[in-house]
Prior knowledge:
The complex is a heterodimer of chains A (about 260) and B (about 325).
Chain A lengths: L8 E9 L19 E6 L3 E5 L6 H7 L8 E6 L11 H7 E4 L11 H6 L3 H4 L11 H9 L15 H14 L4 E5 L7 H17 L3 E5 L3 H6 L3 E6 L2 E7 H6 L2 H6 L5
Parallel strand pairs in A: 3-7, 3-8, 5-6, 6-7
Antiparallel strand pairs in A: 1-2, 1-4, 8-9
Chain B lengths: L3 H16 L19 H34 L12 H16 L6 H23 L9 H22 L1 H4 L3 H6 L7 H28 L3 H6 L4 H23 L5 H13 L4 H25 L8 H19 L1
Amino acid sequence: METVKPAAAFCVAKNIVLGHEKGKPLHVSDGGVPVPISFTLPAGQITAVVGPNGAGKSTLLNAFLNEPPLIGGSLFVNSLPQTIQDTSVRTLSEIMAVVTQESTYPEDLLLVDLWRLAYLNKVGVWGRLPSRESEVFRTYFGRFKLADKALKPLRRLSTGERQKAFLALALLQEPQVLLLDEPTNHLDPPSTQDFWEALSQQQHERPIDVLVSTHDLSFVRKYADHVLALKEGKLEYEGIAEGFLTNSWFERVYGKAID
Amino acid sequence: MLSKPTFLFVLGSLLVLFAFPFVGAGSLNFAELFEPGSPSFRILFELRLPRLVVVAVVGGSLAVLGGIYQSLFRNPIAEPYLLGTSSAVSLGIVLVHVFMGANPESLIAVGAGFLLAVSSAFLLIALCFARGGKQMDRVILFGMGTNFFLSSVLFLILSYHQQHMGGGSLRWLFGNIPWVGMRQALFLAAASIGFLSLVFLKARALDALSLGDTIARSLGVSPHTSRKVILLLSSAYLSLIVSVTGAIGFVGLVVPHGARLLFRPATSRVLFLQSLLLGASFLAFSDMVSRAVLPPFEFPIGVVTTLLGGPLFLYLLWKR
Lengths: 259, 320
């Protein structure tokens, strides 16, 4: 088993092959063989995963939850002794939290009851969840400007407020790794800005390992420390965000220049 | 503590359940009620109280099962009857009854119903959650397809063996509350309490699953395993219910929906508790109506639930 990891890295991917649910590789090269990718991601920073639609961004993020499992290679994060493929759902849930593009949600679920579910993996389905009045929720009501929405059902929240609510749900799990899969895709510009600011404020207070797939270049400019750029399953760029922004990598990855 | 609609709802439900034993073909003589062996005593304790237990347990159970299906398939109009699981149980029981001569309530018949129910429910899950859940919105179409197929096979067998089945054949298609003794009624109640406790404990996993499979995983709930466990449990529970009453439709659809519109339950646990009480009183009321309109004739219970529930359902939808 591989144990060598650079000191300041939270994640090491060695020759991983991304796959579909059906166990087939996501992308194959012209010769018909899968394209393995390798990278190392810095701890306590925000890594942006960019690339055109279908490049494998979501699949890469989902690989951290082992769904679908990788077809080849090994993916390590520094808090686990074994690869992610060899880790149970329950153990993964203790270190990972996720926000998806758009979540399905029960319309009548109250915001505060959604947040109580963050403790599900700590107390189990049998155990006692924290009460609605818990101190810990108050912090997030203030920070995410959701104080008047605590006892509102999710359907009464705006799309932007709901995405922030799901970000708070993820943060309440106190994850070491936060996975954000195009979280602002359905948000208008002010809500998008609001969402990123909430994330960045959190990152200032208690830095965690954040992996964000996004098409939002201004987010990459303003908040990302590190960039992974994918194109048709190949890793085109891996390195600091400035390097990606200044050397026309964006053009190379997307095939088109952007001002 | 209790809000006004909740209070009225609990009061109304309890009133229906208390009134139930006093409605029916023969009127009760109150002076005789506590004299063992008298006609009124026997009507009350040997006929109507067991029937009340059966009706309440079946109504509450069907309502909770409807709530489970709606949450599991993420569709507000999913329920075991509509999606063919009830037909699957009926078909299993009838097959064993007709071709092996076993009693419909025997273990082997219920077991056959359970096997078919699990198969049809797992087929639905496989269809809906294939390709990362992209087919999810088709659950009603898949389910109704299954239902049409299974009920046609059932109908074929029933019409071919009508003389063998006697008057009981209709109940497998439309449902009917049988007159049973207290022992059987209490057995049903005890089994239901067992199942309901398990369902209640699994309800939080349903809440997590309703946020999508990815978020459920990050909350420590394994989507595939949880769905399988919940469907196995519900299929076993449904098989037991259907073996007693046949397939009664509409309760699983209208009751959880009604509970949602009336009370806006925040979590699955609350929804299940409300559905349990509302379902019990709804079916008890339907049964009273079916027996009180033209005594001693009894309307089929499925017809009454639809006639009572349909307009109410439309009204609630319209009001929303």
